[in-house]
Design brief:
84% helix, 352 residues
Amino acid sequence: MPAEARPLLPEGARRTGAWCAVALLVAGVAAVFVWLCVVFKTAVTPALLALLGTALLGPLHRRLLRMKVRKSPAAGLTVLAVLAVVGGATYVVVAALVDTGAQIVDSLRQAAQDIAKHFGAAGTSLDDIAENARQLLAKFGGTAASGVISGLSVVGEMLATAALALVLIFFFLRDSDRAVDVLRSVAPRSTGDLVEAMGRRAFEAVEGFMRGTTFVALVDAILIGIGLIVLRVPGAVGLAALVFITAYIPYLGAFLSGAIAVLVALADRGFVIALWVLGVVLAVQMIEGYLLQPLVQSRTVQMHPAVVMLAITAGASVAGILGMLLAVPLTAAFFGIVGELRSRYGAPAGPS
């Protein structure tokens, strides 16, 4: 009998090649998907925002349904409730920033001048700081930030996107019971249960992230706002509102809002008060990191801070500020899907 033909490559090399081919295929599909999202961002953006809003408002809608309210009125009341809450919160935030914005800007300008005086010999001036800030804004802000600076056209686009997102939230809430049927209809017949389970896990992860982040943002804003008021820092309410808004960008948002608060205190109240403000910000961040975040993440998908930072960076490179806001919930949904796949197909743990 002829000798059995020997493979050209050893087993390890063939396995590595197979995994590389799979990785390239997945990366190619992901790249095409991201490219399509960028091309159709006018439709994709309100749809993603509506999904986040639906995840946040889902518990209220389900409570109305349990109170025997019909689906359409329940969805309409939920949208009206979010309009009232978001509209009221926006009014409070905008009013606070308008009333105290001049103080904050003047304090930041004074802090920049003080820093320039101390470090001017090293080649740093106020003009350099302004130019570097403009370059950083153009680099990391993307189209959203540059559009806000450019004028009213983007304001109209943002309003249109918000209106479309609200309409989509209404339909998503009203027809949420049909989502399972839609998933099963587009999936192959043999994978219907798997697709449904992955969809549920992904949505539960996004829902948990939105509720948890809103709760953490509110606690951070209240605690830091109280500390700034006690220390008599100008623009305390506006700075607290800024803390709440930026909290939806994990880690990076807290750093930016805390740095602004410290600079305002440094310029207006002096070095000692600035240290106290820094202590308040760090204390609140420790409460968040060691108490609030573990309590919140224990109910949702747990992600390492490095993964969160990489997701934010990738989102900023793809879609600017909007990408930074959407990166973490989308990553949470991805990890929810991975967790479902691991629970179904992962190798069972060996005996201890």
